[in-house]
Design goal:
Elements lengths: L6 H5 L42 E5 H4 L7 H5 L42 E5 L2 E2 L19 E7 L4 H4 L6 E7 L5 E11 L6 E12 L3 E12 L9 H4 L3 E6 L5 E6 L2 E3 L7 E4 L10 E5 L2 E4 L4 E2 L4 E3 L13 E14 L4 E17 L3 E2 L10 E4 L7 H9 L4 E5 L1 E2 L10 E21 L2 E24 L1 H8 L1 E2 L8 E2 L26 H7 E26 L2 E20 L35 E23 L2 E15 L3 E13 L4 E12 L3 H5 L3 E5 L2 E2 L4 E2 L10 E5 L8 E12 L7 E20 L3 H9 L10 E2 L15 E27 L2 E18 L6 E3 L8 E10 L4 E10 L7 E3 L8 E2 L8 E10 L7 E8 L31 E9 L1
Parallel strand pairs: 2-5, 10-46, 36-40
Antiparallel strand pairs: 1-4, 2-3, 4-5, 6-7, 6-49, 7-8, 8-17, 9-10, 11-16, 12-21, 13-14, 15-16, 17-18, 18-23, 19-22, 20-21, 23-24, 24-27, 25-26, 27-28, 28-29, 29-30, 30-31, 31-32, 32-37, 33-36, 34-35, 37-38, 38-40, 39-40, 40-41, 41-42, 41-43, 42-45, 43-44, 44-47, 47-48, 48-49
Amino acid sequence: MKIRLCSSLLVGASALAFPLIAAAQTTPAQSSANEVVVTGSRVITNGNNSPTPLTVVNVTQMQDVHPATIADQLNDLPQFYGSQNQTSRAQAGSADGGNPNAQGNVLNLRNFGVTRDLILFDGHRVAPNSPNGTVDVDMIPQLLIQRVDVVTGGASAVYGSDAVTGVVNFITDTKFKGFKFNAQAGISQHSDGATQDVAAAWGGNIGDRGHMLLSYEFRNNAGIPNYSSRAWGRDRYLLTQLTNSNGVATYQFVKGATRQDASFGGTITSLGAGVNPYNNFYFSGPGVLSPVNVGTPVTQRISSYGSGSFFDPSIEGALAEHQVFGRFDYDLTDAVHFYVKGDYTNTHNDGFAITNPTYNPANGSNIVPVYANNPTLPTSISQAMLAAGVTQFGINEAFGGPTMEQYRERSEAFGGNWSIDTGFNGAFNAFGDSLKWEAGYIHSSNSLRTVADNAMNGTNLMASLDAVTPAGGGAPVCYVTTQSQYAGLYPGCVPFTTWGAGLTSAEANWIFSKIQSTVNTSMDDGEASITGAPLSTWAGPVNMALSGEIRRQSYQVNSSTVPATLANPLNCAGLRLISCNAYSLQYFQASSQSVPTRSISVEEAAYETDIPLLKDMMFARSLSLNGAVRVTNYSTSGTVWTWKVGSDWAVNDWLTLRGTRSRDIRAPTMQELYGPKTVGTYTGLDTLLNVNLDGAAGRPQPAGTISGGNPNLKPEVADTTTLGVVFRPKSLPGFSASIDYYDISVNNAIVNYNGSGTAVQNDCINSKGTSITCSLIVRPINCCTNSPNNAITLVYSESININRQFTRGVDMELNYTNRLFERRYNLRMLLSYQPQSVDVNPTNGLQTNNAGATFPKWRGTAFADMALTDKFKVSVQERWRGNMNWFASQKGTGATNNIVFGAPGHIEQTFYTNLNLSYTPWGAGKAEFYVNIQNLFDQQPALYASSQPFPGLVSVAPGDDSIGRYFTGGVRLKF
């Protein structure tokens, strides 16, 4: 059943991956380190015969061009795009329970969803270690990883849920012997983003039958806390929407964008009676009011280089990580093998977010009211307002500006993950063949604690802003503390006194709260399989595999916040400046409830076979049919079937054709099912009654909003087709090429919808109450009765099975190895063309193609290396991103495909070059000293400015390098 990869084949491998024929996975039961089983199948034992396309990454050689985490290395490949990492989501994450670590390394195959690729570790499922069901692959021990197999086709029938876009299998060098030590440090040319990595591993035999592996790894990345540390960040570009005289939406590219209605000292706005003499003034210094400098006005809220506020988040989130790993295997008998491995990872990420504006918990506005007779105001300002008949004014202040960095929003994520994987495997003779069996158990437990250091406490702020002079005179105090009926509600209240001067530490400690949530997830997974070839055809043995799995996942959220709910409305007693309703928010950043332990269980059984049909015939050196079927029962949603049919046709020695058709699934994540509830208020349009729900005269009261999980979700269902061709021309030894087409279509896609949306409301009305969107809207009578007494009272924002999503494209891979001046060189190039990634919204009929907008249609990566001498080697990587558009293209009623005015018609393509120089003074394999330069030519990222009204949140094109030229030096030792 097994094949052996001869040493000459391994020598001829590409510099950065084994060739296609070596796309395989070592299993613990094998007696030889060179026997392989293909990832993506339990029965195919030769990568040449796999109908499913896959790419194999040799981790050791990948480090030559990018000495970083394996996730960073994988994201250099064009198959991965839209992955989450320390630079893609560098700013602070939310402390709401159930939200993932914003800086975690989460892979995304083809930008089609981070929850639609399955992560394996030595062929076994890795438990989600993030609340949204994703795997932060930094949690996988990396020093002893030998290679990573990337299956770029559906594999749910073989491995179960989530393998929609493919499988990423991290494979350990289980036979490693000796000691290895790696140490490196890096820094950007801007003298920031410093990193230090130290790792050590040992492997050796324990007696005649045992083998052990041990490793420890430490990573420290200081991160880059400010956009303003780069020229492109200081320019603060913003893509601003305008409307021309014909009512057509256009866009303007704004440089130096600021918000006119908010400033770092506080901008005054008129409220109520009287004409405020200081309307549109701001505190430009301690107690000093100056007219707002609009700069160059663009819209009502946005200007260019004005005196308003802006945001300055992190370019790269920080990371500190400790990781330990151990593995022990033992031959109990010649036919029975035992293994156990365990790992523990502790991570600490943090990042900075946008500035903290003042916040009104009653209406969600950034403008909060203040009494004009507030004794903490400068006397001249207070008297001028009172003389003009002004009793209240509004102020909008952005805390955390250039002079108040310590009060910016900051979040920290503390992750602790441990797992143990143990089992037995072996072989026995039956049906005239040696059958292989394995039975194992995995337990994984993860805890993610997210802390928001400077989250605003809305009620404390309102108490602080309502200052009065005590009856006996003296320093101002909070009004609520002077009223006996409110005694004890706000003990220690500190009045707000520093108008335009920055907060005192006492004020900051009162207004800002450190809030946190902890999400605990766990998985218990037992599986067993048996493989062999009990039958044969004239063309060869019929390989079969029968497997079963029982899995249980649990989820729990502990939140430090106590949000308002229908049963527990926010207590606004004593807060004269606001009025509360049942859905008012108490906190600016976090407002979610805790979730008691929730669990789901899964039982699965699968069968796979590979049937040889032809062999050694004209136009068919070999032809085989591969098929798999799996039945899965979910405790939440019932039974679902998945299947796969594929064929591999070796026409001759140099041409192979392959193809698959599969039905795959993605089960809803624990967060999608049971995510904690958050509450709020909706004051917008009720499309049935054509009236705003703002409580104004004659209009209905605001509706409540509840966001959170939906336990009624069903699995997504995907249909995948792949067709491929592999060339290995005899006339060009050392060359191979593959081209694979893929088509993935997901039905009943799980997408979050808000019942307050106009399209959602209309969809429910037009369906006369039959659409699934009606579950998001609550009315007193029914969905569609147009009566003043039937206004919306509550809307839900949650995920539902409703959309259709599909993507199509082509992956290409070229490998070539040869000699020049008796020195071997290796070349490899990977290209991806993805012209379609479409989301079909049934509520409005829009088809939105994100290809070419949220990610480039064309992307590629090329590698080259050559040993110039026996001791000196040069490695180069070139990464290319094609042109991009500013907006996704749309089809259907209401589609908008706008042209940006004042900006280029498209985002230009870009290239990034990495260079590595290595020196091995004592010969290969003993010690290697290296210097690496990422982004050798300091290619600046293309601006991908946000169209939201958040000046300073300029982003860069997805996948572009936001850090700049980066230097790394290090040493690798192996004994």
